[in-house]
Amino acid sequence: MAECPFTPPYPKPLKSKAGALRRFFINWNSWVHTLFEKSYTMKMGMVKLPRLTFYLLNDLEQAGKVLDDPERIYPKHALMNDLLEPLLGNSVFSANGEDWARQRTMINPAFAHTNLKRAFATMADAAKDVVAMMRAHDLSRPVDVDPLMTHATADIIFRTLFSITLDEAGSGRVYEAFNRYQHYAQRSTTLGLYGLPRLWYRRKVQKAALDVQAVFEPIIAERYAAYLAGHRAEQPDILESLMEARHPETGQSFDAKALLDQASIIFLAGHETSASALSWTLYLLAECPEWQERLYAQIEEVTGGGPITHDHIRLLDDVRHVFKEALRLYPPVGFLPRTVTKPVTIRDKPLAEGDLLVISPWLIQRNEQNWACPHSFDPDRFADPANADMARQAWLPFGRGQRICVGAGFAQQEAMLIIAEIVRAFRLAYPAAKKPDMVSRLTLRPVGGIKLSLTSR
Predict the structure, then answer these.
(1) Is 373 annotated as a binding residue?
(2) In 290-382, at which residue ranges do the beta strands (DSSP E only) sit?
(3) I need a surface site. Which of 126, 283, 348, 371 has the fewest CB within 10 A?
(4) What's the count of helices (H) and strands (E) in the chain, helices before strands?
(5) Distance CA 206, CA 270 (A)
(6) Cα–Cα distance between 267 and 249 in angstroms, integer?
(7) Is 451 inside a domain boundary?
(8) What separation in angstroms does the CA of 223 have from each of 229, 234, 333, 357?
(9) Structural domains of the chain, count
(10) What is the DSSP string of 29-57?
């Protein structure tokens, strides 16, 4: 390609590696802002912190081995548990080893409810509802699409989990509380990494976690009490399947606390990452009207102007490629921390037991050795057969290996449907304003939302 296409904003890398004090102040707000220029090209780097040594591994072959981890040498690091334990407890996301295997075995049947064809009608209803919500706004002024995408994805997972809809007030509480949670969890963990006291921040994190769970904890409590009394749901859903789950060897079931933990991770993973990716996708489309028209033309051609069906989704290649490119540029989870559980050598560097090893989708997906014009928006790169190998190895928004996101297909289908319905309903434009900034904590979110001008088609 002679010239790179549109290059959307991303944090300007530091000129050189930050020292411990500077890194502390940058980490206080965002992980991705600590990166320096060489981070985007190096195969492996090392950072010494007061309480641990961590290695950033971008070598594709070695990163693949760590994520595949057939010998279970590299479980999830305690850093991730520290960030998420107040909200998720001991759920399948945070557990390791045999505990993780036991939980995964028990919850697997529940994911039958995320079967893509089975879930399509739920997604379609929620997508139409969010378009109606967008139409109800004052379209003479820019509309913040970030909380709307949270509503759409949270509503879909609410319907799938509990067989009921989530109202706008409920999704608004989740959006506000989880933003607070990320803010305080980031600062609490940063203090912990430097061995500093953090009790006040931990209390704030706990409060925000309770505020998120308050949206669905009463539903779980009521359903669980009815289940114990012998009543079964008229319409089976994920919660019903979790209550029915039994360990194949011990017959053990989930108690009330474990149900809340498992529902919390399904709810969080089922909406937060997708909402982040959708907000960035709509921003990219707003900056590239030619792509909007290309998507619109393909949608109309495939559907013949009628409703979008499950069979249509697989034919919407341009929509798929736009979303995949948005996930490449703005992966919702930019860093995957792993623990080294025994001495190993990687790229001639000796790693000790207890070291932190980080695989970064953010860096791997923006490395010029993996992708041409790595910081530019070019959905057609996913249609190019020459990129097929990189699409397998250097595209990691859902992780890889045994712990790959079980909802990857679900997330991509719901996103494609929401994107298609919005492009059908509106022309998007980014106002003449400062480009959006981002903050990288648990997920990658735009600072202050993303306000777009919407014009009805």
Answers:
(1) no
(2) 336-339, 344-346, 349-351, 356-359
(3) 348
(4) 17, 11
(5) 21
(6) 28
(7) yes
(8) 10, 12, 32, 41
(9) 1
(10) T-SGGG-BGGGGT-SEEEEE-SS-EEEEE
What are 414-450's pLDDT values in tens digits? 999 999 999 999 999 999 888 999 999 989 999 999 9
Task: Specify the CATH number for the domain of residue 74.
Answer: 1.10.630.10
Full residue range of the structural domain in which residue 179 is found: 20-456
What percent of the chain has pLDDT above 90? Answer: 74
Is 2 a member of any domain?
no
DSSP readout, 115-171?
-HHHHHHHHHHHHHHHHHHHHTS-TTS-EEHHHHHHHHHHHHHHHHHHSS---HHHH
Q: Are 428 and 454 in contact (CB under 8 A)?
A: yes
Q: What pLDDT score was predicted for residue 147?
A: 95
Structure tokens at 322: 């736009």
| 59 is a domain residue | yes
The answer to the question of residue 31 being in a domain is yes
- In the predicted structure, residue 1 carries a pLDDT above the cut 60: no
**What integer pLDDT is reported at residue 93 of this predicted model?**
63
Mean pLDDT, to the nearest integer, of 340-364?
A: 95
CA angle 5, 385, 315 (to 5 degrees): 85
